[in-house]
Amino acid sequence: MRNGIANNCKVIALTNQKGGVAKSFTTASLAVGLVQEGKRVLVIDNDPQGHASRCLGIKNPELTIADVMDRLIKGEQLQAGYGIITTEEGVDLLPANVNYAMLEFSLISVMSREKILEEFVQLEREFYDYILIDCPPNLGIFVLNALNAADYAMIPVKLEDLSIDGLQQLIQTIGMARRHLNPSLEICGILFTVVEPRKKISLRRDISAYL
Question: Which segments within 2-84 are labelled E, that is strand?
Fold first, then answer.
């Protein structure tokens, strides 16, 4: 996956503070689909739950995003490709597991803590057409790191009222990230997931009000 140089890499953070919206499954499925279209794709599992890693068939990785972020926090130099593995589907992956959760405490005292992941992304983006960042279901420091490193935010939303209701806060957070961290960040789309065609759903608000 690392042969040659990819141009115009697009970095997309898939984020929603609500869990159970199929965010990790969507990340993995999108990555596999892009690879099947001949694209070079890296998935960064930015969630301590490690669901994107498991969706891509990786359960017990030797190195994870926790190792990468720990080295960056300490100011150690990384070689391109550090921690990345290639899955059976041809997707490159920086995996995660529960150990990543402990790193959140270390980030509290780090200067420019919202920009640590960006260092890794900048190191890797020349090798890929797409870098997809799967985010945890919250609006914490890991999500801010992803939004700072990304060109675009994609919002997977389960087609139900409770899921729609959380959009306003998420859009505000993305707006804050744009104002204070990443002026070029754009929302590239809101993706409906877990759609049940036979179920009639009445949304209390027009979703366009959040865009």
Answer: 10-14, 41-45
pTM of the model: 0.89
* Residues whose CB is less than 8 angstroms from the CB of residue 145 and which lie 6 or more positions away in sequence, other chains included: 46, 113, 114, 115, 116, 117, 118
Which residues are CB-neighbours of 8 under 8 A, at least 6 positions away?
129
Cα distance between residue 75 and residue 92, in whole Å: 25
Q: Which residues pair with 153 in a beta bridge?
A: 13, 187
- The two tokens of residue 96 are 């995660």
Is the pLDDT at 123 greater than 80? The verdict is yes
DSSP 8-state symbol, 135: P
pLDDT: which is higher, 176 or 199: 176
Residue 76 has pLDDT above 90, yes or no: yes
